[in-house]
Amino acid sequence: MDNKKTDNSTVYEVAIKFDFPNDYCGCSMIKFTNQKNTPIECLNPGSKERHFVKLINGNIIVNVSKHRSCPFCEISSTLPIHITKCYVFPGYALITLLCTKDVLNRLYDKLDKMRLEYHILSVKDKKYNARKGKISTVTQNQRIALITALHLGYFDTPQKTHIREIAKMLGKSPATVHELLKRGIRNLLNSSEPV
To answer: Where is the HTH bat-type domain (predicted)?
Structure first.
């Protein structure tokens, strides 16, 4: 038994590269990327319902049904982690996640049991923002609404879209989208350094 004292309150940011064979038939995001030779960014990795993805070389946001064999969903559903970034390229994917030291050790065990080639690119001690008490205060739904609004031109001058169009795309009411945008912007401003 290891007698080293572990600080489970320390949060780590872990970057992982997954390699996928061209005939990989698991997650629909990975399958789409391999078939179309188009890199994508998943805007809500680890979602229990469906993925919203953005083509990296364009401004299109696509709603993709979640497949039960998505490796990123499998990791996040079995371990208390928070996936912050997920980029899928033809043949490989890059994800960044946050977890404690205890979970980090369990993550290594989980990755070893998965039948995918992976490489740990980095493990960094993520500084905790004691002033705000959180690392990230923007929720998944707020992030999706903000990114969708940004890419559809809601924040442009002149404005290229309205909340109704964003709401229709996200399958939410205009009032809900308005609230998500308002709270998301507030949370972004509150979590940043003072100006």
So the answer is: 139-189
